Amino acid sequence: MTELSPLLKVKYHPKLSRYENLCWNFILYLRDKENIQLHIEGYDNEKSDFVDMTKPYMHRWKQEYLKARLAKLYLLDAWAKNQTLPLSMLTFTTYHDSIYAYRKIGQRYSIEQSWDILKAGFWKTSMLIRNKIRKRISYFWIVEPQIKSGYPHIHAGYFTEFSDNEKDRLKTHWSKILKAGNYYHGLDFSFKSDYQSGDISSFRNYLMKYMGKTFIDTMPNWEPEELVFNAIAWKGRYRFFGCSRNLSIVMKRKKKVNPNFTWLCTTMHRPDRGFEEDKIIRKNPTWEKVTN
Q: What is the pLDDT of residue 208?
């Protein structure tokens, strides 16, 4: 018997079939961007001549993006190993479209609502931690799907250790004030509690194992819940990864700068079409001064 594609699995899924059109549009987006190239034109001041280069169009479901994210996580790992504080892992989860949720808060959350509630709730909880509990704390976070439902949840790492009273305050804030999820499972502190002295290598490996399943080449192996999760993330332009400002600097890769190169223009090129159909994305406002 032939294995059904993820899209057909969504179509025949009792709870996810309403997302079929969205998933189809997401797949069309991926197909449309699959072979697009970025054509970069510049001027070599040393040679007094024009130069150009071609790079693949980047989006977060491409393998190139995965490699760039892996490089950032290795930089974070190297930084973390020089820290003395432990790493506390928090998992943020919202209510679902369930009878239990209706009994607890008088309503049910769809997957789309869960994304918005998770995003807003995590930001408010993170602000509580950063402004009231641990000022100037270093942290990072990643969103991933719950495989059996397609609902998003967040794993966040804070380089500190929370007391029982602080945990209770945060869990109460998540469940009672924000009403995002319940007290016992909505905000969980038990995920991978064995991080000492900032060692994130095992968590990095966990992230890469998950992220390795999200790029386009692995789509035939996606579960319908994973396809719905990614389609909604694409539609809502939701981020999958973030961190504090200081860690953003830590994970910023050094760019190789050619002092003789002056960037002029970046265009979007489709190999199956002529260059006359290229779309200009950005253009150096000093183009005329550089080329004359």
A: 66
